[in-house]
Sequence to fold (183 residues):
Amino acid sequence: MISHPSRHCTVELQALPSRIGQVRRIVSAQLRYWHLDPLIDRAALGVTELLTNVHRHAQPDKTCVVEIELLLDQLMVSVHDHDPRLPVVGDIDEVSPTATCGRGLAMVAAVSETWGVRPDGESGKVVWFTLTAPTPATATATPSRPPRRAATEKPAHRFVTEVEHPVDGHRPQHAPARSAVAG
Fold:
């Protein structure tokens, strides 16, 4: 179920491995719809870690709600579950390099601006994180290319170049490249 697709998205699910992948794709699609493509990787990683924690640790059931909300320049991602126990955040330096668990909340902290946990009534909690949304100008700019200049910024210059050919009249096989653009 997606509600208020322009600013708010809510998904209720059982935190099972197959569902976690589906929710990651839903979050990615919603962020694309909101033109927040630069946030997709970090949001998908964060929501995956939070849902994995629900799958591994939540009791009495694995039912949860993922909510993403765009508030001005902040994207808030939260996971509500029915387990009132708050997560225990260990020291990441104490986790073995070969451990397959114990780094989830540290990764959420690393990719987000802020994160936290709060009780949700008497039987549940909300774990959340925020990401700073790019401004519309930075969200649409392509980082690999500078923006195109308007044609009226500088007058176009034409360059005429004569290439001398060898005496026999044949062109050389590899002529040096020449630019026809000023600048």
